[in-house]
Design brief:
It contains seven helices and nine strands, in the order ββαααβββαβαββααβ. Helix 1 packs across helix 3. The protein has a single domain, classed as Aminopeptidase (3-Layer(aba) Sandwich), CATH 3.40.630.30. It is of the alpha+beta class. The structure holds coenzyme A. One of its GO terms (molecular function) is acyltransferase activity, transferring groups other than amino-acyl groups.
């Protein structure tokens, strides 16, 4: 399934993305809160990342989406939905990673919104969650901006990776909460039945278009 937002096209990852994925994970700043700056090898991307994404896509319509500019088609990173193996409820884990040159433009928020919409509207998820190192403020901010709430804090004893000494945080958004906030905006009745064009326009922009 291909998703489109105002600025991004998200398409299922393929073997043709290997070079771009290796390049992304070779930037130690990008990998700082993922692996302590250690790059991911081509072998791991070809032998584990891509097969896992393909298995997810086949089994659950989830997996990994390559993010490219809608206009120029430049690689910007990826967004992913993973189905936990031993979960007792319909839930998916959201994650994302973008090339450093596009940080700070709201693209992670835009793409994450599109996957939230897909999860709740098309995939039947009851809960979408995401986790990161507590020190990863940019990632936490994206989670907050898409409406997620802090749901768990995992403390780490040792500073195994850079920044992990302050632990990991998990954020979540429940379908019921998403419905009562986003969907109310969509209907143009955010405040006691009054139409509020500014808010409605913002909500439409944030959610983006879903294209099957
Ligand atoms: C996390 C990541 C995807 C964010 O991408 P992005 O496109 O820059 O995100 P957005 O522009 O949508 O939002 C980032 C927000 O974090 C804020 N932010 C970034 N660094 C910050 C810092 N050091 N302190 C405070 N706020 C910070 C930005 O100001 C922005 O918030 P605002 O819109 O309220 O100003 C990107 O930094 C990345 O790929 N990091 C490496 C991989 C990673 O850490 N992935 C997440 C692991 S789970």
């Amino acid at each position: 399934m291909i998703l489109e937002t105002a600025r991004l096209r998200l398409r299922p990852v393929t073997g043709s993305d290997v070079g771009a994925l290796v390049g992304l994970d070779s930037d130690p700043v990008v990998m700082r809160y993922v692996s302590g700056g250690v790059p991911t090898s081509r072998e791991v991307i070809e032998g584990w990342v891509l097969p896992r994404a393909e298995a997810e896509r086949r089994a659950h319509n989830t997996g990994m989406w390559t993010a490219v500019d809608r206009d120029a088609g430049h690689f910007r990173g990826w967004f992913a939905l993973r189905t936990p193996r031993h979960s007792h409820r319909p839930e998916v884990e959201l994650s994302y990673r973008l090339t450093r040159e596009v940080w700070g433009r709201g693209l992670a928020t835009e793409g994450a919104h599109a996957l939230l919409t897909l999860s709740f509207r098309e995939l039947g998820a009851e809960r979408v969650f995401a986790s990161t190192m507590a020190a990863n403020i940019a990632s936490r901010r994206v989670m907050e901006k898409i409406g997620m709430r802090l749901s768990a804090i995992h403390l780490c004893d040792e500073d195994i990776l850079f920044g992990s000494g302050s632990g990991e945080v998990e954020y979540e958004l429940l379908h019921s909460h998403w419905e009562t906030t986003t969907m109310a905006w969509f209907q143009g009745r955010p405040f006691a039945g009054q139409t509020h064009p500014q808010v409605t326009a913002r909500a439409r922009h944030a959610v983006g278009d879903l294209t099957a």
